[in-house]
Amino acid sequence: MPLDTSTYALALLRLDGRRWNELRRMHAQISTQAAADGSSYLEMGNTKVICTVAGPSEGRRGGAQGGGGEAKIEVEIGVAGFSGVERKRRGRGDKRTSELQHALTAAFTSTLLLHLYPHSTITIAIHVLSQDGSLLAACLNAATLALIDAGVPMSDYICACTAGSSSSASGSDGSADNEDPLLDLNGLEEQELPFLTVGTLGASEKVVVLMMETRVQVQKVESMLAVGVDGCKQVRKILDGVVRAHGRRIVEGAAR
Q1: Angle at 73 between CA 71 and CA 79, to 5 degrees
Q2: Within 10 A of 8 (CB to CB), how many other CB atoms are there?
Q3: pLDDT tens digits for range 203-241
Q4: pLDDT in tens, 100-147
Q5: Span 10-16, mean pLDDT?
Q6: Distance CA 52, CA 36 (A)
Q7: What is the pTM of this model?
Q8: Residue 229, H or E segment
Q9: CB 160 within 8 A of CB 199
Q10: Where are the beta strands (DSSP E) in 25-180?
Q11: Over the Cα atoms of the chain, what is R_g?
Q12: How are the residues of the chain apportioned to helix, strand and coil, as percentages rounded to the nearest 5?
């Protein structure tokens, strides 16, 4: 279908042809790894990740969280050396990887019903195959699908995406016309623009993840957050479609 440019100037399109509030193509599958308790594969643009979930399983000696008896979440992230422009292998002590692991652990600790599995361990393993922006958001979305596939109870989905402030919004004039935020940044946009990653709980506007790794004027944050929350609602619809399609395949397979 050709792009309708009657009410939208071509000059306002981004380098990849999207408007400011459009997501990149998002593709996902669940139950991609038969040997895992839960698994998923997700693409957000050219960012591609595989996620597997093991457990809940009996915790290792001393592995349960102290006193509370709730399950413990362990997150492991592996980044392929060929995944980005820089052809290098990230070690276990890599700062960026540690930050991602901590963000995912904190997000799912507050969302999963861990009290149902005392003294157990849930391991989330993520393998990054390609990086082109929105990496944390892709990891959160992929982990959500894998946890659903594993049957781990949660209060609701975590749906995540990024939002940035356009270059015109960084100008000194401060006019409202130049303050359009951008949704779902790709790799080139993340290198040039301030951005944040936001994750919401289900179809609500309750924010459970909010990470900003760049500096931005404080008056820009509200508009960026609003666009990010709206993008999470779009992501929720896509994840719902993936889960429903998988459910239909299971029913059809059982009927044969």
Answers
A1: 165
A2: 12
A3: 888 999 999 888 888 888 889 999 999 999 999 999 999
A4: 999 999 999 999 999 999 889 999 999 999 999 899 999 999 999 999
A5: 73
A6: 6
A7: 0.85
A8: helix 218-255
A9: yes
A10: 26-30, 38-44, 47-58, 72-79, 120-130, 158-165
A11: 19
A12: 35, 25, 40
